Amino acid sequence: MLPLSREGTALPTLVLLHYFGGSRREWTEVRALLSPHFECVSLDLPGFGDSADIIGYTVEEMTAAIAKTIKFLALKSFVLVGHSMTGKLALVIAAQKLAGLKGLVLVAPSPPSPEPIQESNRKKMLAFRRVRQDAEEFLDGITAHPLVGEARERAIKDFMRCSPDAWTAWLERGSKENCAKHVNIVGYPALVITGDADPSLPASVQEKMTLPHLKRPRLEVISQCGHLPTLETPGKLSWLISNFVRNEVKDPSDPARPELNGH
Fold first, then answer.
1. How far is 96 from 84, CA to CA, in rounded Å?
2. Residue 24, Cβ neighbours under 10 Å: how many?
3. Would the pTM count as exceeding 0.85?
4. Is the pLDDT of residue 256 over 90?
5. Which of the four, 111, 130, 158, 246, has the lowest number of CB atoms within 10 Å?
6. Could you tell me the strand order of the sheet in which 101-107 lies?
C-alpha cells in the first residue's frame, strides 16, 4: 500500500493524486477545505514524497499501485482526482472501471496521448538536480506568480526529495507513452480544471487532447493561475471540486452538503 493521508468520513471519498515532482502534501490546503464535507485520501506515488524509495515508475506500475491501495482501503464510493502527471494515470485507471468509482476530476492533466512537451524543455528538466536552486526554477516556471510562505517551502522540499530515477522515467518514458487506445472514451462524469496562465497544459491542450476521451466532460479555467492550482488558488479549486462532486457525482444516499466559499 502506498503512503497516504486520510481525513474526513463522508462519501464519496476523494482520492487525491499529486503532480510530477510533488507529493501528497500538495493537497494540504485543499484537503483542509474539503475534508469536512468528504473523506479525502491523498497518496504518494512511487518515487515521490514518502514513496521516494519505492520503485515502479511506468504508467502500468503506478496505476497498479494506486488501484491496489484503493482496493486495500475498500473504498465503496470514490472520485479520482488527478493532477498533471497523475491526470493521465487517473484516466488509465478509469478505463479499468474499478468498483466504486463514481467520477473524475482532472487538474491540468497530462493527456492519455504523449504529453506535448517541447524537447528543449524536456532536456532542461532532465538536467535539473535535487537542489533548491533547480527546485525554485522549476516551480517559478510553472506558476502564474511565485509561490510564497509555507506552501513554497513544502513544494521545494518535495522536489528535492523525489527520486532522480522516477523524475527521469516520467520525462523519458511515462510522459511519452500513448495510452489513448486503452483509455478510449471514459463514461464517468468528469471535471477538467486548468489555469489560464498554465504554461504546460492549458485549456487549448485539454480541449484537443483530453476532453475527446471523456463522454461527459466539463472544463473550468481558473483565472490568474498557472499549473499548480492546489498551491496557487486552493480556495477556488476546492470550491470547483466540491460543487462538481455534490451536484454531479454525489452518492444519492449521502445528505446534502453546504456549499464551500469559492474564494
1. 20
2. 24
3. yes
4. no
5. 130
6. 4-7, 40-43, 13-16, 78-83, 101-107, 186-195, 214-222
Confidence at residue 63, expressed as pLDDT on a 0 to 100 scale:
98
Instruction: Compute φ and ψ for 82, nearest 5 degrees.
Output: -105, 145
Q: Are the C-beta atoms of residues 132 and 18 closer than 8 Å to each other?
A: no
CA 138 from chain center: how many Å? 17
- Report, in angstroms and rounded to the nearest whole number, the Rg of the chain calculated over CA atoms: 17
**CA distance linking residue 225 with residue 233, whole number of Å:** 7
C-alpha cell of residue 52: 521516494
Query: For the segment 68-110, what is each residue's pLDDT rounded down to a tens digit?
Result: 999 999 999 999 999 999 999 999 999 999 999 999 999 999 9
For the chain, list the domains and their CATH numbers: 4-249 (3.40.50.1820)
Query: Phi and psi of 91, rounded to 5°?
Result: -65, -40
Half-sphere exposure (Cβ direction) of 81: Cα atoms closer than 13 Å:
30
Residues 91 and 27: beta-carbon distance below 8 Å: no
Beta bridge partners of 5: 42
> Are 107 and 233 within 8 A, CB to CB?
no
Give yes or no for a contact between 80 and 93, defined as CB atoms under 8 angstroms apart.
yes
- Which amino acid, one-letter code, is at 35? S
- Cell numbers for 90, please give them: 487517473
Read off the pLDDT band of 249 (50, 70, 90).
confident
Residue 183 CB partners (closer than 8 Å, separation 6+): 91, 92, 94, 95, 112, 213
Dihedrals phi, psi of 188, to nearest 5 degrees: -70, 150
Give the residue from 128, 212, 116 showing the smallest Cα distance to 167: 128
| Cell output for 45 | 506515488
